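Lay summary. Proteins are chains of building blocks that fold into shapes, and those shapes determine what they do. In this project we predict the shape from the chain. Here is one chain we studied, written as its sequence of building blocks.
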Amino acid sequence: ATISLILQRRWKKAKRLGFADECVPPRVMENAARMLVLSGHPKRQLPFMQRMMNGPLKGVVASQAKKQVAVRARPEHYPAPYAILDMWANYGGNALAVPAGKPTSMEAIAASPTTKNLVRVYYLQERLKGFGKDSDFAPKHLHVIGAGVMGGDIAAWAALRGLTVTLQDQSIERIAPAIHRAAIAFKRKLRDDTQVRFALDRLIPDPSGQGVRQADVVIEAIFENLEAKQKLFADIEAIAKPDAVLASNTSSLKLEDIAAGLKHPSRLIGIHFFNPVAMMPLVEVVEGRESDPQALKKGLAFVRKIDKLALPVKSAPGFLVNAVLAPYMQEAMRCVDEGIAPEVVDEAALAFGMPLGPIELADTVGLDIAVAAGKQLASGISEPPRKLMELVNAGHLGRKTGRGFYTYNQGKPQKGAVGQVPTGLADRLVTPFLAAAQRCVEQGVVADAELADAGVIFGTGFAPFRGGPMNYLKERNEQP
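And here is the predicted shape, written in a compact code that computers can read:
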């Protein structure tokens, strides 16, 4: 019903803009088209402004469009959008009319490394979509313990995808902010009051934890304290259904240590989401040393059920995604300690193709979280970066406090001029990232290099046009 409403709005908008002559229900579409053809009505002219934009103002429109595209995609990274604008502005939208020798021709675009790597990324995504297909597990009820930002957003996403969700925390007052955030997200996503109400009805505050008894999947998302998690899972195990999936969203504690508090440690797996939950497509499904393979299959099926991409990983510090991010971000902060401006560090990463610079990423995640993750995951580092600790000790934790490495105004970083980016800075930043990805493959954290590429692209946003870190390493090593 939701998809139907969205399509109806788009059809009506297409008619209003002049892209369609009529908007009718699908069941009468053929008959309506036949009547329109036989009616003899003259061809409808485009509105005046659209005629101007496709005529005298075409050059101006193309120029403005290029500026808008440039905000999100650099021409050296993604040439296709610029080629499309060139075809429209100079060749009447006829791709075949562009001379083969031009860099904006179909031949040049089809043969570009970006095209080859993006096709590869498509097949990597399809492989991730395949995980969980071989299971008949069809979860209907999710119970989430911990209504903080992560737990609350996991619960909201699952409710949006059609599951009944009970959300537990110590009091209704702790749960209320998560429900409020969910209501705002549902209104923005669904744009229909009835559908919003249905989604909110599926998200049930449950301070006493009664939902554990009926849940098909139980996810723990409380603070990172081993003793607290062990006690919680011991309580859950005593009342949960025997076939329910028990999962932790931990990112820094060992799954085996948490499972030690269970009578049947084989029941516990990891289901690790990334923040922000609604935007990040990847979920790591973690197999501990004693995890039951059937429990893992159910975890993969659950992730598929809620329309996320499931990546099977072995239990290891940081799993895959955080394990590659930590040394990358640590290297970026060392650059700042050496006197390189945060803006310059971030620009070097953006020029490489990252969607967000590592310094701004640290501010976005929270500098206190970055410190905690660094202690757990960054091996071989005697002490944390100096500037990072100065900011944390002063209470400047990034975007959430309005100041970190950058100062924030209405959630947006206030950056100074970049200036000259030192030669080799991007390579310096990316080298520990690539080394960590290779190490995860060699240690069996992921099954193979393809899954490492898939996980890092969809879990960190690593430059998709490069095909993933392992693919980039291979191509770089093959260059003369």
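What the prediction tells us: The chain has a mean pLDDT of 91.
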